[in-house]
Amino acid sequence: MSIDYILLEHYIVFELFVYLWHIKQAVEQHLSSKKQIIQIRYNAQEAYNQCSIINPHWQPTIFCNINFSNNNLQIKSTAHI
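Structure (tokenized):
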């Protein structure tokens, strides 16, 4: 094994360590941030205006209650956006 190969191998390991350190720092900074969460509301009419194949009456369902009783699957939306 040549010295160049060993140096390259160590350099790659060092680079990976640096990348992982930066990712860890970014995640910690994001999780400790006091910024308020920005909620983006889906506007079906605006989506339809941009692309006419989109159903202008469709709304995403965020939360659902699922009832498995009596072998009947019933899904009810609990969030109205």
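The radius of gyration is 25 Å. The chain has a mean pLDDT of 78.
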